[in-house]
Design a protein that fits this description.
Length: 304
């Protein structure tokens, strides 16, 4: 599958390519905020190599790995490089905002915040949440501030942008949790929610001495007092992924965080994540990330 980069995005939406991308040959830090108006542009189903936050109140079809999702109310979406998606607008007026940036823009701390919002909605086929009109207007104001600060040249510009992005993330997480708490969740949904709570509560690992107690689908099924096949069936029906896939994705995410943000050895990281030998962790990481843990850490450190 073809991967769209930032230059491709600006070309597709028929916007002038920012000078920083042209002069840097795509390698520089990049951040932008774009207001979307009177736009019927379709985004083909593809993988992007940049991050994007989209705020919209107009209808469209979100295309994900697990099928199409009709959006018919105010919504905010978060996308990241490893996720495939597409968008088909259903109305000419697409009033909202798009905020996009590349890996070089993210500080270690901000990357952890973006990981957090994705972890909150890991059971969904895509990271998004519907909004009522009041919350949409509140977030719309934050995006207006982002756009205004981005155009400003004062010395604290980046710090203010960082703070506004955090406000957006924390508000979205707050709305998501309030939505879950306010719903009467069916027993099957409740079991899936309990699975993700158990999964996420094992992280982050705080020291090399900390180890995972729940490692396999059977461990989770036993803790939830259900049959392993029943849990797997519910997860596949609701998320399109098996119990093993969710566990592996979470282990990979935590492995990346530790490689990027800790001074633990690769052996210590692997042991903490439940791998008996360092080479087992290396094989797992290479299978899913397509590079070794050592190379991942080296590439990340070069960007810092």
């Amino acid at each position: 599958m073809q991967t769209e980069d930032l230059l491709g995005y600006y070309t597709n939406i028929k916007k002038e390519i920012p000078l920083d991308l042209i002069h840097s040959q795509r390698n520089a830090l990049h951040f932008n905020v774009i207001k979307t108006e009177s736009c019927m542009l379709s985004l083909p189903y593809a993988r992007r190599d940049y991050y994007k936050i989209t705020l919209t109140q107009n209808p469209g079809i979100l295309i994900t790995d697990q099928g199409e999702l009709k959006v018919d109310r105010p919504t905010i979406f978060f996308s990241r490089p490893e996720v495939n998606y597409g968008w088909e607008p259903l109305a000419a007026n697409q009033d909202g905002y798009v905020c996009l940036f590349n890996e070089s823009f993210l500080t270690k701390e901000m990357k952890l915040e973006f990981d957090r919002v994705h972890e909150e909605m890991i059971a969904k086929p895509f990271t998004y949440i519907h909004l009522d009109q009041a919350k949409f207007q509140e977030l719309f104001f934050y995006f207006e501030r982002l756009a205004s600060e981005h155009m400003d040249g004062h010395m604290f510009k980046n710090e203010i942008i960082d703070s506004i992005l955090r406000l957006i993330i924390y508000n979205v997480i707050k709305v998501h949790r309030e939505t879950i708490d306010g719903q009467r969740i069916p027993a099957s949904n409740r079991l899936v929610h309990q699975f993700f709570t158990l999964l996420n509560n094992q992280f982050p690992l705080e020291s090399p001495q900390q180890i995972l107690y729940l490692k396999s689908p059977a461990d989770y099924a036993n803790r939830l007092n259900t049959h392993i096949n029943h849990l797997n069936h519910l997860l596949k029906a609701m998320t399109g992924k098996s119990t093993s896939q969710h566990i592996q994705e979470r282990l990979l995410l935590e492995g990346k965080k530790l490689l990027e943000n800790s001074d633990w050895t690769i052996g210590q990281i692997g042991q903490g994540l439940g791998f008996e030998y360092p080479q087992h962790f290396t094989s797992f990481f290479k299978k899913h990330a397509l590079i070794t843990p050592k190379i991942h850490r080296e590439r990340f450190m070069k960007q810092v």
